[in-house]
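Tokens as discussed.
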């Protein structure tokens, strides 16, 4: 029963890891002894976050910038990781985008960009990284894939982001489908459906324009059953659980991390 939640020495890739929930998960992994690769579209931001996290939490945090909405970026990321590592223990598919517009004006690009990043990217990155995941996977210690969905894929979103909720609902079901196939290869797939966290994405929805410092998160959190927004410890703790021995019999689940938003 010792070390049930240990991820010491594991190798992880966290997409969308330069900010927001991805950065929170990467920080939690580093603080608990994992070697972490992060990916995001903007190279300078990704590089800076990797350097800052490595300094703050210790360990190795390596930047692999890429556009994971396109197959070329996905294949380049897989090739780069394979050139550096013999295996991959943990894949966190967190990279995601949203698009807001009124129903009558919602554009095709707002549909395609969201679906390409949030759904297609998750499927094809996992596919291209299967060789590395298979090299890690054993019956006693399975490899892990964690897809980041959203409570907007479970309940009706409050924002006019008409492609976002359906994309996350697709991620949730894709999680179940992939879990059913990959569990036979000792690769466990689960999903997390976050609620409100102090992120760039939520800031754009509540009038902060992407500036997380411009939002009164304490006031916003009063509308949540827990009376606050989520913290880095909340999301990282769940991701660590899903990456550790503690969750080795948990397969194909979509676990909310939302302070009770859905059930309330």
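Sequence:
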């Amino acid at each position: 029963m010792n070390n049930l939640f240990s991820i010491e020495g594991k190798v992880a890739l966290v997409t969308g890891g330069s900010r927001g929930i991805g950065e929170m998960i990467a920080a939690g992994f580093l603080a608990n002894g994992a070697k972490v690769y992060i990916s995001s579209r903007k190279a300078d931001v990704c590089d800076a976050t990797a350097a800052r996290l490595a300094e703050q939490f210790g360990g190795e945090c390596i930047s692999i910038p890429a556009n994971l909405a396109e197959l070329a970026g996905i294949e380049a990321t897989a090739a780069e990781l394979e050139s550096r590592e013999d295996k991959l223990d943990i894949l966190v598919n967190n990279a995601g985008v949203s698009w807001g517009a009124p129903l009558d004006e919602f554009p095709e690009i707002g549909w395609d960009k969201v679906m390409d990043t949030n759904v297609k990217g998750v499927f094809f990155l996992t596919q291209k990284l299967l060789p590395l995941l298979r090299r890690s996977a054993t019956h006693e210690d399975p490899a892990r894939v964690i897809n980041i969905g959203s409570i907007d894929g479970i309940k009706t979103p409050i924002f006019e982001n008409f492609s976002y909720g359906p994309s996350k609902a697709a991620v949730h079901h894709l999680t179940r489908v992939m879990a059913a196939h990959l569990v036979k290869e000792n690769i466990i797939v689960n999903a997390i459906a976050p609620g409100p966290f102090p992120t760039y994405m939520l800031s754009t929805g509540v009038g902060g324009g992407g500036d997380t410092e411009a939002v009164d998160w304490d006031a916003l959190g009063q509308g949540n059953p827990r009376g606050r927004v989520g913290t880095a410890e909340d999301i990282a703790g769940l991701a660590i659980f899903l990456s550790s021995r503690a969750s080795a019999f948990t397969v194909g689940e979509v676990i909310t991390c939302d302070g009770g938003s859905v059930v309330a």
